[in-house]
């Protein structure tokens, strides 16, 4: 087994616009699409001839991805239009909670290429990925909990990944095609904020092998809900089933006087009102607990450390509701 | 062929400042909003450009949802927050039909949009500051804005973080990005640094504390200050639509105003020469 880092870097350089000689124009139909070289934007584009001669049709890697992921029972995306609402925190909680059942095999995949947080939150920082004949071996934090993130491939933890979309897509494809998960009951996919390359790609690549649905994370204030609406609109456009909304950071109990306050005030009714408006299940709200952030910083399971806290109960309720909707689908 | 000079539309602007953070949800847009309001209160004329294309928050922050951008003879006319015309905003949010619509764009389209935002907006002729609010990460938007500003000589970037390690490790990546593209970090603001309980005045460090200060020492960057979580600021944003007073007037009485006065003063004290003097 050898560390894959150098190979990954080499591989990715080739993936970034393998054939094109100029950047894609604004309305580029995509060098792999049916219309490559024939669209309106292609007139006058330096890549026109190249695109026209590229092989057409569905991506030849999709069958490989399907084959690789065939032994995974459920795939859940964790989405939110807004950053910093707790997608990675919730992904880690969900992973810990599922892996607490020794009969389940769980995988967590981090698609946030520019800001990977999962390695730290699951206590796997500093690990490296190894390669064997059957593909990339995930990093195991537990006997039954494996994970994959670009964080494991960086020369230094502070290195910035300054990549355009095409390059990120290449890595996402490799994550789906080359990681040797083995048999899994659940694969939880953590995503970056927004509705752009990563989201389009993961949906394209997973469409055939099937996504169970998306868990949407939000915080109560309208500025966050505004972006979350966009994410739900994206799910509708992409035909991804929304399993439900969870409202994070809702309410804070002062450890000194036990008085409750709304830090991110839900002036428009918060996640619950949004769920009702859009006719989506509301899975529950999780209060803000400073110990959650600390547990994430040190890579420990908050659920194990403080099993009796109100936040733990709330998280477990959400996880249960989520599992119900996946199992009964 | 590349033209090795600043875009025409930016030539007359005295200062360009970016607001950056590797992490999402740390308060880039609220820091941008408050920086803009503080600068206007100090007598400057300010423009704000929002290049967060898939999650534009500035229209809501400034209470300008449903406003539209018009085409003038010199390009797109930004939206002014009031008739004094001291503060103007440009965001993709103004170009969407419905506030719930998603913009599902891959990189090349985002790049083209940012190019247009840089080249085609008719900012005021005597603009003192152009603030650029960015999305999280170090990807298409960031590469594009760095390319567009390559010859525009921006003052630098205000870096926003929250105190916990998970956030500062993303912000370190952003600082390395700044180094690569030659954006000078003007300083670090630690946002969401503690919450003062309205019942007992006890300050709780919800997202721990001190991460920003530590970061500034590690990277040898000025530390501009820490901003506590203040629910009244969120409220101020929400009530401005129904209030008689303008956002500027409301902010004048806000708890956070003196804090931001200090933070911005630290940036102004760096005495960065005006771009127009350098160019002429």
UniProtKB/TrEMBL annotation, chain A:
Keywords, in A-Z order: 4Fe-4S, ATP-binding, Cytoplasm, Iron, Iron-sulfur, Metal-binding, Nucleotide-binding, Nucleus
Compartment(s) of residence: Cytoplasm; Nucleus
Signal peptide: none
Residues involved in ATP binding: 81-88
InterPro entries: Mrp-like_CS, Mrp/NBP35_ATP-bd, NUBP1/Nbp35, P-loop_NTPase, YlxH/NBP35
Region (Disordered): 16-39
Binding site for [4Fe-4S] cluster 1: 28, 42, 45, 51
Predominant subcellular localization, coarse grouping: cytoplasm
GO molecular function terms noted in the UniProt entry: 4 iron, 4 sulfur cluster binding; ATP binding; ATP-dependent FeS chaperone activity; metal ion binding
GO biological process, one term: iron-sulfur cluster assembly
Biological role: Component of the cytosolic iron-sulfur (Fe/S) protein assembly (CIA) machinery. Required for maturation of extramitochondrial Fe-S proteins. The NBP35-CFD1 heterotetramer forms a Fe-S scaffold complex, mediating the de novo assembly of an Fe-S cluster and its transfer to target apoproteins. Required for biogenesis and export of both ribosomal subunits, which may reflect a role in assembly of the Fe/S clusters in RLI1, a protein which performs rRNA processing and ribosome export.
Homology family: Belongs to the Mrp/NBP35 ATP-binding proteins family. NUBP1/NBP35 subfamily.
Protein name: Cytosolic Fe-S cluster assembling factor
Source organism (scientific name): Wickerhamomyces ciferrii (strain ATCC 14091 / BCRC 22168 / CBS 111 / JCM 3599 / NBRC 0793 / NRRL Y-1031 F-60-10)
Organism classification: Eukaryota, Fungi, Dikarya, Ascomycota, Saccharomycotina
From TrEMBL, chain B:
Recorded superkingdom: Eukaryota
Family annotation (Pfam families): ParA
UniProt keywords, alphabetically: 4Fe-4S, ATP-binding, Cytoplasm, Iron, Iron-sulfur, Metal-binding, Nucleotide-binding
Entry GO MF terms: 4 iron, 4 sulfur cluster binding; ATP binding; ATP-dependent FeS chaperone activity; metal ion binding
Cellular component per GO, a single term: centriole
Location (main, coarse): cytoplasm
Cross-referenced HAMAP family: Mrp_NBP35 (MF_02040), NUBP2 (MF_03039)
PANTHER family: CYTOSOLIC FE-S CLUSTER ASSEMBLY FACTOR NUBP2 (PTHR23264:SF19), NUCLEOTIDE-BINDING PROTEIN NBP35 YEAST -RELATED (PTHR23264)
Function: Component of the cytosolic iron-sulfur (Fe/S) protein assembly (CIA) machinery. Required for maturation of extramitochondrial Fe-S proteins. The NBP35-CFD1 heterotetramer forms a Fe-S scaffold complex, mediating the de novo assembly of an Fe-S cluster and its transfer to target apoproteins. Required for biogenesis and export of both ribosomal subunits, which may reflect a role in assembly of the Fe/S clusters in RLI1, a protein which performs rRNA processing and ribosome export. Component of the cytosolic iron-sulfur (Fe/S) protein assembly (CIA) machinery. Required for maturation of extramitochondrial Fe-S proteins. The NUBP1-NUBP2 heterotetramer forms a Fe-S scaffold complex, mediating the de novo assembly of an Fe-S cluster and its transfer to target apoproteins. Negatively regulates cilium formation and structure.
UniProt protein name: Cytosolic Fe-S cluster assembling factor
Organism name: Wickerhamomyces ciferrii (strain ATCC 14091 / BCRC 22168 / CBS 111 / JCM 3599 / NBRC 0793 / NRRL Y-1031 F-60-10)
